[in-house]
From TrEMBL:
Its EC number is 1.14.13.39. Keywords: Oxidoreductase. One of its GO terms (molecular function) is nitric-oxide synthase activity. Residues 264-349 form the NOA1/YqeH-like C-terminal domain. SUPFAM superfamilies: P-loop containing nucleoside triphosphate hydrolases (SSF52540). It comes from Acholeplasma brassicae. It is an enzyme of class 1 (oxidoreductase). Residues 153-212 form the G domain. It comes from the Bacteria. This is Putative ribosome biogenesis GTPase YqeH.
Length: 350
């Protein structure tokens, strides 16, 4: 007789037959699969991303859409508010501890509200939090309790948005022990986890795959230092037309037209920012890729795109989960970046 047993770290079904497949354990007495064991005890993560889509949840739930500020430009990719039949929705903006002190959260929420009103998206509330530091988590718990109305609550969102970290924090606040693991590998959680909450339950769910993540290009040991997870002190370059900034080996930003501007780059310290003349940029990059401009992989290819930015609008160029560039129009810019890497140009929310 075989007994189904789930890994307590990620929720995958445990198995003893194939070491190369998910859920492997030496014997069924173990509670963590091989991957979660390595993560928990050695901070080692297996490469490769699970491309899961929407989690399956019951009808008439209270859905908490956990959106990291790292993914804020992707907020409308899926209309989650239409996806889960009969449910109501709360929007949680996570990772706010990574934003600069000067960011006005109220203004950001106001802009999000305006946008969602325009699109007739119905959020019961929009709550900013830091799952990591616990900031505003008590306020969120109060909001959830207020809107729960005898329903199960589900934390839903992109991979790496911080659902499991938030789940742990809420559990901890209520003195409940949970085993689910959190970490920088996108797609860590593989199945539902639950704790009692109010009259019913709170569920953590597997994240929704967001393509073009930096984790698709490098092994964990490299991409873990590129993903934004701590407060970023932006670098502001005063650029003239025809100047470029080489961003690690991931991208080249070129300011083609627009006079003289202060342009801010929000990247981890581990990503080098190298300013140069546009006419030299590509040659310089080719010459020093792999040495000055890292991490470089010779199998990677790049694409080039030009954008026209309108006057009186502040823009945000988001390069996957590694950083953002803020620039005011009007301007013409060129972006050269890893083919397939997620790159978005949106109006800035802050
Ligand atoms: N700075 C910061 N980091 C956070 C915050 N919340 C989560 N993280 C980090 O983000 C990474 C991903 O967190 P998880 O909680 O595993 O994300 P998830 O949404 O459960 O991811 P999947 O299970 O893959 O869907 C981890 O390294 C966390 O430490 C936050 O509020 N601030
Ligand atoms: Mg998770």
């Amino acid at each position: 007789m075989s007994i189904d047993k789930k890994c307590q770290g990620c929720g995958v079904k445990l198995q003893t037959s194939d070491i190369t497949k998910l859920g492997y354990v030496l014997d069924m007495n173990h509670d963590l699969c091989k991957d979660c064991f390595n993560l928990k005890h050695y901070h080692k993560v297996k490469d490769g991303i699970d491309t899961a889509s929407m989690p399956v949840i019951e009808e008439n739930a209270l859905v908490v859409y956990v959106l990291s500020v790292n993914h804020i430009s992707e907020r409308l990719k899926y209309r989650l508010d239409r996806h889960f039949y009969g449910s109501e929705f709360i929007l949680v903006i996570n990772h706010i501890d990574t934003l600069e002190q000067s960011v006005n959260l109220n203004r950001m929420i106001h802009k999000l509200r305006e946008e969602t009103n325009r699109l007739q998206m119905k959020w019961l509330d929009i709550v900013p939090v830091s799952a990591k530091t616990g900031k505003y988590v008590n306020e969120l718990i109060e909001t959830l309790a207020y809107f729960q109305r005898n329903r199960n609550i589900y934390l839903v969102g992109y991979q790496n948005s911080g659902k499991s970290t938030l789940f742990q924090k809420i559990a901890q606040t209520n003195n409940i022990d949970v085993s689910v693991l959190a970490g920088k590998k996108p797609g860590l959680t593989q199945d539902l986890f639950d704790i009692p909450f109010g009259t019913k339950k709170l569920f953590d769910t597997p994240g929704i795959y967001l393509e073009g993540s930096i984790a698709e290009y490098y092994p964990f040991e490299i991409y873990k230092d590129l993903i934004v997870e701590q407060k970023i002190k932006p670098t502001i370059f005063q650029l003239n037309e025809s100047q470029s900034v080489i961003i690690g080996a991931q991208a080249i930003f070129s300011f083609l037209k627009g006079g003289f501007k202060g342009i801010s780059f929000h990247f981890n310290k581990s990503v080098s920012l190298h300013r140069t003349k546009y006419e030299n940029a590509y040659e310089l990059f080719d010459k020093h890729k792999g040495s000055l401009f890292k991490p470089y992989n010779e199998t990677h290819t790049y694409v080039k795109q030009t954008f026209k930015l309108n006057q009186d609008t502040k823009y945000e160029i988001t390069i996957s989960d590694i950083g953002v560039i803020h620039i005011k129009g009007d301007a013409i810019i060129e972006m050269y970046y890893l083919k397939g890497l997620r790159l978005t140009l949106t109006e800035s929310l802050y």
